[in-house]
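Contributing new records

If you add data, match the layout below exactly. Sequence lines come first and carry their own label; structure lines follow with theirs. Keep one chain per record. Anything else will be rejected by the validation script.
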Amino acid sequence: MKNSLTPNTTSRVELKSSYNIPVVLVLASIPLLLVQAWVGGVFGLLGLFLMLQAVTLRFQFTATDFELYRGEKLIRCFPYQEWQNWQVFWNRVPIVFYFKEINSIHFLPILFDPNTLKSCLEERCPRV
């Protein structure tokens, strides 16, 4: 029998999309367009690009992997056994999720629920 305090690492958890960063970038681009058009344009395009990514990408935690999907198609699988470190930057306003694998480093904008992300990371890939 499983202890109720033991984490359930066999379940699949999908991170809910968050549009906070894209919306802030698009809104910030409006006054920037009046001050410096090219800077406002860059902010607006980046915000729209991240909005598209938030709509189309899905992240899931499984018992052994962190998986990235576009629609129903699996794009990339990151096995926890290859992870060396992870960090969510700026805890009050999470903006970037960083994790290091044996052969690569990844930086992802927080386009998903940061609280679920942190709890799943702590449960499935605890830092040593």
